[in-house]
Structures are given as C-alpha cells and as structure tokens.
Write a structure and sequence with these properties.
It is a single chain. This protein is mainly alpha-helical and 426 residues long. The chain has a single domain (3-70, 98-408), classed as Ammonium transporter fold. 66% of the residues lie in helices and 3% in strands. It is built from 15 helices and two strands. A hairpin with a 2-residue loop joins strand 1 (68-73) and strand 2. It is globular.
Length: 426
C-alpha cells in the first residue's frame, strides 16, 4: 500500500466514531425506558446495512468508469445504475484504491441507515428498523450514491451540460446525510407522533431527553468520525490530493464550531439560557453541512456555512414540531435532511477554488432537487410498503411500558424508575 492509501485507511477507521456519536445522541434524546433498545437498534442497523450493501448495494453503486446501465434520451447518455456482480464476486479486497472506496461506502451506508433511528425513537420496532435499513443500504443509498460518486448522471452534469464540475459532494452531505434525513422524515410521517406528544388541540408537549451528558459526549465522539469521513471522501471520491486533508479537517471543525455557537446564541435569546439538546443538534448540523464543501472552500466560508447551519437547525426543529406536528425526538430531519441540503447548496455558493467554475450552483441545485423530488418519494414509498407488510410501530402497551422491557425484556437502568409519565399528556 502507498502512503496515501495508508492515510486513507486511517481516516476510514475513524468513521465508526461518527456512528457511535450519533447512536449516543439518539439514545440520550429518547426516553430512559427505551435507551437499551436505541443502542441495540443502532448496532443491528449497522450490521444489516453492512450485509445488505455487500450483498447487492455495491452492485448498484459501483465505481466511476465501471460497468453501468445507461439510458439514451434527448441525445444524451444517462448513466443511472451500476452493473457490478452481486456479493463482490471477482472484486479484490487488497488495499487498492477501489477496495478503500468499497470499505468507506459500506460504512457510509451504515451511517445513513442510523439517521432515521432518531426520528423513530421510542416507538419504532427493532425488526422494522432492520428491514428499513436493509432497503436503504441495499437500494436507496447506492442508487443515489452511484449518481454522485459512481460516474452517474449527476456527476456528469459538468461534462454533458456545462454545469461546473458536475454535482460535487466530498463527504456525503447528500448521499449519506440528506438521504438518511429524508428517510427519517418518511419514518416520522409513517409512525406518527409519540404517545402524549400532542394534546387534543394539537399543541406539542415537551418530552425532554433523559441524558444530556450522553448526548454531549456523542458530539465529542462525532467530531473525529466526521474528520475521517470528510477527509477520506474528499480523497477517494473527489480526487483531492492527500495534503488537502488538513484543509478538510479545519473546515469541518470550524463549521461545527460556528454552528454550535450560533445555536447557543439563538436559544439564549429565545429562552434566556442556552439549550443543551439544541446545541448538540447544532453541532452535528454544522458537521453535516460541512461535508459537501469541506474540500472546496476557505476556512472563513466553512465558518459561514456552519453559522447558517446552526440557525437553520434551531428554527427548523421548532417548525417541524409545530406547526407541522411531526414528532422527531432526535432532530434527525432538521440536522441531516435540512443540514445536508444546505451543505449541498453551499458548494455552489461558496466554492471559489480552481475546482469550481461558472455554473456549479446549477449542478448543486439539480442535486438538491433530485433529493427532494425523487429520493423522498422513493424512500417514503418503500418504507410505506414495508409498513403494510410488517407494522413499524410498536403496540400501545409497548410504548407505555418502554421498548426496553417490551422488546428486550430488560431495562437499561434496572435500579432506577424509568416508567413515569411526568413529561407527557395523557
């Protein structure tokens, strides 16, 4: 292996820390009586996603320049799906660049599958979580990732239509974060709100997370994971030279820093004091928004991207809860869907490096429109069909009792009382 390959492998080894951070945040923002279920669900979802992606996901995603299915329309070739063999048949896993991309994408698919757990917290059955993860990692994620990173039509917008360098996304703000966030929106709509979240007059009740310390510790864990994700993605998926990893790390950190400070300032102005859970979501929102542009913007621009992300997360969390009446305990929709879409658009607004030319904003806009206009209906439809075959939501008794006892038979905190309804309206 070359020194650059070893460096990329090191960055990829950091990615599971991002998954650990998101898992702790989702668990901490949920109810204590479902904490063990949240942790086990994350572990099972990562396992299912890894197997599903290895079995068929890679076959649909492929690599740039690899075999693919194309459609010919309007005198153009639309590369829409890879044509690789199932279960990695014939694919050498030997430390080559191709095998490093494969490893990164397998972990990225698992990371995307973790995101919807935040919106389905406290009421999503374990089996349904795993089924949804299999569909996401086996089809939805690799389909869109092929369009972006596998030589698909979005990546070729620059060549075919003169739209900049084609759609750019260094670290997965679209493929990982927005796809996962839009799936989270679909899950929240299908499941409906938690018991006691909305009164008869549709006014939302506050159901605070049970452990702010776990949530904030998850933020610390997520940072090195995102540094690895963005650096490895920039090098392997966009062809950035290894030395640009320093800029990627700086931009990622500055974006998160600006986002959390913006969230702290806004919540202080609104509530008289900073809100820990919203600040945690702001921090992750900054990381999410940094992913697309981390290799293409200056540090000052990265801070501006994070600042906007922090404001966006803060206000969309409240808007989604009311008046939209969508119950999203972990803030996954605001953080990953809204933050990811903003990160995608930020490339066209802020990128000023030699990699960016006139028309880049159009390519980014087309990518964002594809996420909203195609990926969202697709992921909603697939999960709705799963719900018809196997009900996603736990029985009312299971929600009242807590998912730990109902589905696992034991609570995460057996020595503490975790079953009161102090924060809900009956």
């Amino acid at each position: 292996m070359t020194p650059a390959s070893v460096l990329c492998l090191f960055f990829i080894f950091l990615v599971p820390l991002a998954a650990a951070g998101l898992t702790l945040i989702n668990a901490g923002l949920g109810r204590s009586r479902s904490a063990a279920h949240a942790m086990l669900a994350a572990l099972c979802v990562m396992a299912v996603a890894a197997i599903a992606y290895t079995l068929c996901g890679f076959a649909w995603q492929g690599f740039a320049g690899g075999a693919a299915y194309s459609l010919h329309a309007a005198g153009r070739e639309w590369n829409w799906l890879a044509a690789e063999p199932l279960f990695l048949r014939g694919r050498a896993v030997d430390g080559s660049t191709a095998s490093l991309v494969l490893l990164l994408q397998m972990l990225s698919a698992g990371l995307a599958a973790l995101i919807p757990l935040g919106s389905g917290a406290d009421r999503w059955r374990l089996g349904a979580c795993c089924a949804s993860a299999a569909v996401l990692a086996g089809w939805t994620y690799p389909l869109f990732a092929h369009w972006v990173w596998g030589g698909g039509w979005l990546a070729r917008l620059g060549v075919d239509y003169g739209a900049g360098q084609g759609f750019l996304d260094a670290g997965g703000a679209s493929c990982i974060q927005a796809v996962g966030g839009l799936t989270a929106l679909s899950i929240a709509l299908i499941l409906g709100p938690r018991r006691g979240k909305y009164a008869i007059d549709a006014q939302p009740a506050a159901i605070p997370g049970h452990d702010a310390v776990v949530v904030l510790f998850g933020c610390f864990l997520a940072l090195p994971g995102w540094l690895g994700l963005n650096a490895a993605g920039a090098i392997l998926c966009t062809g950035a030279e290894p030395g640009r990893a320093v800029l990627v790390a700086m931009n990622t950190t500055l974006s998160a820093a600006a986002a959390v400070l913006a969230t702290a300032a806004v919540t202080t102005l609104r509530f008289g004091r900073p809100d820990a859970s919203l600040c945690a979501n702001g921090w992750i929102g900054g990381l999410v928004a940094s992913s697309a542009a981390c290799a293409f913007v200056t540090p000052a621009a990265a801070a501006a991207i994070g600042l906007v992300a922090g404001l966006l997360v803060t206000f969309t969390v409240a808007y989604i809860e009311w008046p939209l009446s969508i119950d999203d305990p972990g803030g996954a929709i605001s953080v990953h869907a809204a933050g990811g879409l903003w990160g995608v658009l930020a490339v066209g607004i802020f990128a000023r490096s030699p990699d960016n030319v006139s028309g880049q904003w159009l390519a980014q806009l087309v990518g964002a429109a594809t996420l909203i206009g195609f990926v969202l209906p697709l992921t909603y439809s697939l999960n709705w069909l799963l719900h018809r075959l196997y009900a996603h939501r736990v029985a009312p008794e299971g929600e009242r009792q807590g998912l730990d006892l109902y589905e696992l038979g034991a609570g995460a905190y057996p020595e503490f009382v975790t079953h009161n309804e102090d924060f809900t309206q009956l």
